[in-house]
Write a structure and sequence with these properties.
Blueprint lengths: L1 H11 L4 E6 L4 E6 L2 E7 L5 H16 L17 E5 L2 E9 L13 H24 L16 H4 L5 H15 L8 E4 L8 E3 L5 E3 L6 E4 L2 H14 L9
Antiparallel strand pairs: 1-2, 2-3, 3-5, 4-5, 6-9, 7-8
């Protein structure tokens, strides 16, 4: 599969890729003469939704925010329809983002504070983007599959189904306005943040970007940081 993807990417992009390695089933690390890239090959979202997402991340990059810009194909497209194993699938080629994944014990208070500043700037730019490009195809959070709790919780689990329904209903009823709700990353686990030697940050994996309450982009890294710092033994204080 890697060889097929290598040949395919070299046909449609202005780069000379010499090696492709699978990172996940959908992401591939590409080593080329011009540098390092990452290819995303998936039908996880529709063409229209992926195009809107990549337009968003390219906008962030152009505004100086740490996000990987997509490379235009030889056809001038940032999302390409390609045929792989007799199936049409969508391809995006990203420039490699600067920075590295920090070790878990390096996520101290100063780094987390900088991440908070970075998230604030992201949301500021998201509002600017939505003024220029009103979002049409990226979903509001409650339309995404991961929130279809009742589809997967068995009917006989009445108590759990009731709690799930209450959680969804309560959040949906929170008043929305331009200050608290809009386009965001949606998946800021600390694994999706890169940090360079000058503590500058870049965010990767905007695949789950959605319209949601901005505070969600704070809840996810806080939850992730708890996982990083928790030492076990049943002592939540520790």
């Amino acid at each position: 599969m890697e060889q097929k993807i290598l040949e395919l990417l070299n046909q449609i992009y202005p780069v000379d890729i010499i090696k492709v390695e699978a990172v996940t089933d959908e992401m591939f690390r590409c080593t080329s003469v011009q540098g390092n890239y990452f290819a995303r090959i998936t039908n996880y979202k529709t063409y229209e939704a992926q195009l809107e997402e990549v337009t968003y991340t390219n906008f962030l990059s152009q505004e100086g925010f740490g996000a990987s810009p997509a490379v235009s194909s030889l056809n001038g497209k940032i999302v390409e329809r390609v045929i792989l194993d007799n199936q049409e699938i969508l391809a995006v080629l990203y420039q490699s983002a600067p920075g590295i994944h920090l070790q878990r014990n390096q996520w101290d208070a100063s780094v987390l504070k900088e991440l908070g500043r970075h998230i604030g700037r992201l949301h500021h730019l998201s509002k600017k983007f939505e003024q220029i490009h009103p979002v049409q195809y990226i979903n509001d959070w409650h339309h995404n599959e991961e929130y279809s709790f009742l589809r997967y919780i068995p009917q006989e689990e009445g108590v759990i189904r009731g709690i799930a329904q209450e959680v969804l209903s309560t959040i949906k009823e929170i008043p929305k306005n331009q200050s608290n709700y809009g386009l965001l990353h949606g998946d800021i686990w600390l694994e999706n943040v890169l940090v360079d030697s000058e503590s500058k940050m870049a965010m990767i994996d905007f695949q789950d970007c959605e319209k949601h309450f901005y505070i969600f982009d704070l809840a996810v890294p806080i939850y992730s940081a708890l996982e990083y710092s928790f030492v076990g033994g049943g002592n939540i204080v520790e």
